[in-house]
Amino acid sequence: MELKELKVLVVEDHPSLVLILEKMLVSIGFLEANIFKAKNGREAFSLFKKTKMDLVLTDWNMPVMDGVDFVRAIRRMDPRVPIIMETSKNRKAEVAFAIEAGISGYLVKPFQTAILKSKVEEVLGISDEKS
Predict the structure, then answer these.
(1) How far is 13 from 2, CA to CA, in rounded Å?
(2) Which CATH number is 108's domain given?
(3) pTM for this structure?
(4) What is the pLDDT of residues 34-81, one digit of tens each?
(5) Three-class secondary structure assignment of the chain
(6) Range of the domain at 8
(7) Which of 15, 80, 84, 86 is the most exposed place for a label (fewest CB within 10 A)?
């Protein structure tokens, strides 16, 4: 599986963070044309219903529909799509709450490209080992 073939949905309400995430994703191998963006969970869910996504990267705290409600909505439609939640929350209870909602992985802001790459590979089941 090559990242350039995959469609990824980035859900983030801060435009500057959207640009940063997009650059990070392109630098690890995604095609810019396959990166879809939404400002909140409601907008993202509408997009998710129209386009088959291979990966979702969502913020937790957003207006209109937060990340947890968005994850729950996705899970009712697609229990298998990998979902990475990114947030500044790092307490065990909050992480457990997000896992219970259905996330596949969790990133604490701020994070570097190498951390994002590692988490993407983990949730997609990509091994870095060379045979």
Answers:
(1) 28
(2) 3.40.50.2300
(3) 0.92
(4) 999 999 999 999 999 999 999 999 999 998 899 999 999 999 999 999
(5) CCHHHCCEEEECCCHHHHHHHHHHHHHHCCCHHHEEEECCHHHHHHHHHHCCCCEEEEECCCCCCCHHHHHHHHHHHCCCCCEEEEECCCCHHHHHHHHHHCCCEEEECCCCHHHHHHHHHHHHCCCCCCC
(6) 3-123
(7) 80
